C-alpha cells in the first residue's frame, strides 16, 4: 500500500504515521513547516514542504501538484491527519473527483463541529445531553442574571482551542471577572461558559461514512498514563446522531463526561480529526487508519473480532512506572510494549520537536 499523508500538525501526523507503519504501508508526507518533524521519522520515505492554503482558500497550485504526484508516483490513497489537511483534501477531491482519498468532510462541516459554540447549538437542536452552555461575548454579561442558568463552579474555554488549552474551572463570579480582565491569549472574548459537571471524562473515537459509524472505541483514563478501552452503547447512539446530522465522513473524537451524582452522560465537545491516542487503539487491535483505507478502496470493512480495540493500554512515557509497581502489571498489554518500542526506535522527530 502506497500512501501520501497530508499533515499540518507534526505531532498528530506522527501518530497517524505509526498507524500506517502498523499496516506496513509505504508512506510519503506533505505539509507546511508545522509538519517538518515527519521528515525525520524512520517511517517516512520522503517529505515535501508545501502550503495547503493561500489567502484562506485551498491553494490551486498545491492541489495540482498533489494530483500530479498521486498520478505520476501511483499512490493508492491520500490521507489527511488533522482538520486543516482534511479540509484541504475534501476541497481537492471536489476539484479532482478521481483522486483516491480517505473519507473526510468539507471545511464547513469540520469548522461547525470544531467550534465549541456551534457544536453546543447543534447538540441542543437535536436534543442531545450537553451541560448548560452560553456564549460570553461582552463583559456586560458578567452578572448573576445571565450566569444563573450556568451556576458555579463553571468551565470557561475558548471557542476553537485544542488539547484542553484554555479550559479553566472558576468557582465564583469574581474569579471569572479577574480571568477575563487578564486578556491573555485564551481569556479573550468571545468565550464559552459551561456548567461544571463533577465526574469522569470518557471519550468515543469513530470512523464514519455514509451516515453510519463504521467502527469505534471508547476510552477513559485510569490514571498513571493508563487508558482503558471499552464499548458504550449510549455514547455510540449519541455519536451516530451527530454523524447523521452532519453527514459526517472520516475520523472524529467526541469528548463526553459521566456525572458522578446520577450517572448521566453529557456531550462536551468534538475533535473532527485523528486523535493523539489513535496509535494506542491500533496496538489494542483496532487500526482506524487501516479500516478507513480498506473502506475507501473497497466500500467494505475487513472482518475484526468483537473485542478488537478493547483492554488497557499504558502510554510509552508511563510504562516504567507501571513496571515498577506490583499492581501496575495488570495495565501492561502486549500492545503497550509494542507501542513503547515503536516510540523509542523513532527518536529523531521527537528530538527535532524539542530543539525547534
Automatic annotation (TrEMBL):
GO terms for molecular function: ATP binding; D-alanine-D-alanine ligase activity; metal ion binding. InterPro entries: ATP-grasp, ATP_grasp_subdomain_1, CPAse_ATP-bd. SUPFAM superfamilies: Glutathione synthetase ATP-binding domain-like (SSF56059). Residues 120-297 form the ATP-grasp domain. Gene3D superfamilies: ATP-grasp fold, A domain, ATP-grasp fold, B domain. Signal peptide: none annotated. It holds the Pfam family ATPgrasp_Ter. Keywords: ATP-binding, Ligase, Nucleotide-binding. This is D-alanine--D-alanine ligase.
Amino acid at each position: 500500500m502506497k500512501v501520501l499523508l497530508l499533515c499540518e500538525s507534526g505531532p498528530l501526523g506522527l501518530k497517524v504515521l505509526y498507524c500506517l507503519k502498523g499496516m506496513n504501508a509505504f508512506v510519503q508526507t506533505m505539509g507546511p513547516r508545522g509538519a517538518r518533524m515527519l521528515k525525520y521519522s524512520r517511517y517516512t520515505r520522503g517529505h515535501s514542504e508545501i502550503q495547503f492554503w493561500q489567502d484562506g482558500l485551498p491553494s490551486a497550485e498545491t492541489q495540482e501538484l498533489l494530483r500530479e504526484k498521486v498520478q505520476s508516483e501511483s499512490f493508492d490513497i491520500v490521507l489527511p491527519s488533522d482538520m486543516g489537511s482534511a479540509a484541504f483534501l475534501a476541497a481537492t477531491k471536489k476539484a479532482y473527483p478521481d483522486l483516491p482519498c480517505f473519507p473526510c468532510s468539507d471545511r464547513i462541516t469540520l469548522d461547525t463541529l470544531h467550534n465549541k459554540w456551534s457544536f453546543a447549538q447543534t447538540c441542543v437542536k437535536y436534543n442531545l445531553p450537553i451541560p448548560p452552555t452560553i456564549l460570553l461575548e461582552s463583559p456586560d454579561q458578567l452578572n448573576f442574571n445571565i450566569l444563573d442558568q450556568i451556576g458555579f463552579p463553571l468551565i470557561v474555554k475558548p471557542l476553537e482551542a485544542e488539547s484542553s488549552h484554555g479550559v479553566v474551572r472558576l468557582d465564583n463570579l469574581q474569579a471569572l471577572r479577574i480571568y477575563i480582565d487578564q486578556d491573555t491569549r485564551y481569556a479573550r472574548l468571545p468565550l464559552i461558559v459551561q456548567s461544571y459537571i463533577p465526574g469522569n471524562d470518557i471519550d468515543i473515537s469513530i470512523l464514519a461514512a455514509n451516515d453510519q459509524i463504521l467502527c469505534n472505541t471508547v476510552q477513559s483514563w485510569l490514571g498513571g498514563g493508563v487508558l482503558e478501552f471499552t464499548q458504550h452503547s449510549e455514547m455510540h447512539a449519541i455519536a451516530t446522531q451527530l454523524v447523521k446530522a452532519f453527514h459526517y465522513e472520516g475520523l472524529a473524537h467526541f469528548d463526553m463526561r459521566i456525572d458522578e451524582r446520577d450517572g448521566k452522560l453529557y456531550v462536551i465537545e468534538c475533535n473532527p480529526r485523528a486523535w493523539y491516542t489513535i496509535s494506542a487503539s491500533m496496538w489494542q487491535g483496532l487500526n482506524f487508519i487501516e479500516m478507513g483505507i480498506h473502506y475507501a478502496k473497497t466500500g467494505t470493512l475487513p472482518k475484526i473480532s468483537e473485542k478488537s480495540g478493547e483492554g488497557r493500554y499504558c502510554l510509552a512515557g508511563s510504562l516504567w512506572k507501571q513496571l515498577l509497581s506490583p499492581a501496575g502489571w495488570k495495565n501492561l498489554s502486549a500492545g503497550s510494549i509494542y507501542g513503547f518500542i515503536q516510540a523509542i526506535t523513532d527518536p529523531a522527530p521527537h528530538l527535532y520537536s524539542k530543539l525547534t
